[in-house]
Fold this protein.
Amino acid sequence: MLSLTVPERLALKSRAHQLKPTVMIGNAGLSESVLKEIAQTLKIHELIKIRVMAERPQREEILAAICAQLNATPVQHIGKILVIYQPNPEKQQIELKKMPRHKGKKPLTKKQLGSRT
């Protein structure tokens, strides 16, 4: 399973915010055909949302199984929505950059720091 740094994960979360779920997993759970569909969709898009219609413990197991079998990494799990990322070396669509920092801001003075406590 891949590992992401915090800035990379935040960048992927912001990109996934506008996505619609591309794969739905019903109460039957994770089957081979659903896993093949997820693998195919990950090759095309690299970052996908999956809607899972199961209880929370089952959703966590499904997320772990998908990531382990497809060598992907979980980005986010909110409610019934799972966000998964798998980089495609042939077609690098998503470029992971560090989060931009605010430039030009001055550090706080001693007086400002003292008033914060």
